[in-house]
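tool=predict chain=A
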Amino acid sequence: MIPNPIVVDVDIGNTNPAIPISLGTAINITSVLQEKSAAPSEEEQVILPDQDYDGMSKVVIAPIPSNYGRLIRVGANLKVY
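tool=predict ok
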């Protein structure tokens, strides 16, 4: 996976002389992001990045199928499909 660079512009004064950062110094932070997909469920889902990933770039939740919980009348009975 190709890392997604994030550039942070430092615009605060350097209050710690042990850290050699001056005003306007750009710091490149490279993060490794993951993309995942999931199916809808009736239970809460917590989707987290796998080990060795810094975060999520995208999480895709599939739509509920069009026939989910469909009621069909069969004679005097109703059936759920």
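The mean pLDDT is 76. The radius of gyration is 25 Å.
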